[in-house]
Design goal:
alpha/beta; Rossmann fold; 8 strands; globular
Length: about 425
């Protein structure tokens, strides 16, 4: 089975007109947008964006999209992304979204300073983020100008949501580890396979973990978050052994090992964030990332799901609103993707991605008429691709020259040794 689904080259990537304003690199540009795009009379708040380098007329623009649970797009980050990821031949525009903007967060709090979850949903649901992205697009290339998009993980999901609504304004979109919850549900692929994998690895580990969680109820949430975050920090081929070692250490009461894991995986910072009002945008986006996948449907008794079980606790107020039908259940329709004949889409997936099942990426790629899918023998953060310096090469070649170009072909040849091949698959350690 061919896992590299190429498309023929076309006209995508045409140069954009000059921006509507004098855009400087490293400067935060402020743009006023409605608090609620569906009700502009509700007032406006500022979002910000910055360039990685001074705008160069005639070169394509790429908007860097992050969502509520991502923090790599901060003031000053655009120049580093320009240098390390995109190179000098693109106009890189980093969007500092409403999710990281205090003016929006404060509007989602009640008079006592606590989250008003109904208001939070109104302010931070996907439609609002999509219209913010489009407002930035219009600001930098004009009402009819076209851009390229880049996003990863939850930001990649936001890119695909944007394509469904405003794809006519997009030349190219590069997404990596794109969360695709509706496809999880449609394909009957659980959003989380931790418990099943643990049983295949060693059924005794399931017993150890269940017993440990029962004996340490006060630490249950911290243990779940530690296990959930482990795969972001451990190489794919070492994950099983590291997971087993952590569970055994917890069962033995090895507090030093637990403390080290919490430090290494930034667990306490995550817990502190999730309990603060700064996490309100993140919670809304997490609901949109998990609910369409049927993540919160009943599971077999005794199953431990670090991601879902921890998120259920964090998202309880929003889940209650969905159950009471006071807010809609999040959903996503891929049908508009079938009509994007003038947009090229590159989907980078990791075979050993713990957060995004690679099979959903295959289905996602097939939704677009002009696409390329690359499944790397790698994990969610593409440690091996970055170690070999080829992920950036793929991104640059695609966004500059597009599918079927000599530059893209050269980048694919460079990444070929890191492609996942099912017949060569070796078990993780």
């Amino acid at each position: 089975m061919s896992l590299w689904l190429a498309a023929t080259p076309g006209t995508a990537g045409s140069p954009n007109p000059a921006p509507l304003q004098n855009l400087e690199s490293g400067v935060l540009h402020t743009l006023s947008v409605p608090l609620d795009h569906h009700h502009p009379e509700s007032g406006s708040r500022p979002i910000r964006y910055e360039l990685g380098r001074p705008w160069q007329s005639g070169r394509p623009a790429v908007l860097v999209v992050a969502d509520g649970q991502q923090y790599y797009m901060r003031p000053g980050a655009a120049s580093a992304l320009q240098k390390e990821v995109f190179g000098d031949d693109l106009n890189v525009v980093g969007i500092l979204s409403r999710g990281g903007t205090p003016e929006f967060v404060s509007a989602a709090l009640d008079a006592s300073g606590r989250p008003d979850w109904q208001a939070a949903w109104t302010i931070f649901n996907a439609d609002q983020w999509l219209e913010d992205i489009d407002a930035v697009r219009r600001a930098v290339v004009g009402p009819t100008g076209r851009v390229s998009l880049y996003g990863r993980s939850g930001g990649a999901y936001l890119v695909h949501q944007y394509l469904a609504k405003h794809g006519a304004h997009v030349d190219r979109a590069f997404t990596q580890s794109a969360v695709s919850p509706a496809l999880n549900r449609e394909l009957r692929i659980p959003i989380e396979s931790f418990w099943e994998e643990l049983g295949r690895q060693d059924p005794g580990l399931q017993t150890l973990l269940s017993n440990t969680l029962g004996l340490r109820p006060a630490d249950r949430l911290a243990i779940l978050v530690t296990l959930q975050r482990q795969h972001f920090f451990v190489a794919a081929d070492q994950l099983r052994s590291a997971r087993g070692a952590l569970i055994r250490a917890l069962a033995q009461g090895d507090e030093a090992a637990f403390t080290k894991a919490r430090l290494d995986y930034q667990v306490d910072q995550i817990l502190a964030l999730c309990r603060s009002t700064d996490a309100v945008p993140q919670m809304v986006r997490e609901l949109e990332l998990l609910h369409p996948a049927a993540a919160f449907d009943p599971a077999p008794v005794g199953n431990v799901r670090p991601l879902v079980d921890s998120q259920r606790e964090f998202l309880r107020p929003l889940l209650d609103l969905v159950a009471e039908r006071r807010i809609p259940a999040p959903a996503f329709d891929l049908v508009p993707a079938h009509r994007l004949f003038d947009t090229e889409v590159f989907i980078l997936a990791g075979r050993w991605d713990e957060a995004v099942d690679y099979r959903t990426q295959i289905a996602l790629a097939h939704a677009y008429p002009r696409q390329l899918l690359f499944i790397a023998n790698d994990n969610h953060v593409f440690v091996d691709l970055d170690k070999n310096g080829v992920r950036s090469q793929m991104i640059r070649a695609f966004l500059r020259a597009g599918l079927g170009s000599p530059e893209m072909d050269a980048a694919l040849r460079a990444t070929e040794p890191l492609r996942w091949r099912e017949h060569e698959e070796a078990p993780m350690k």
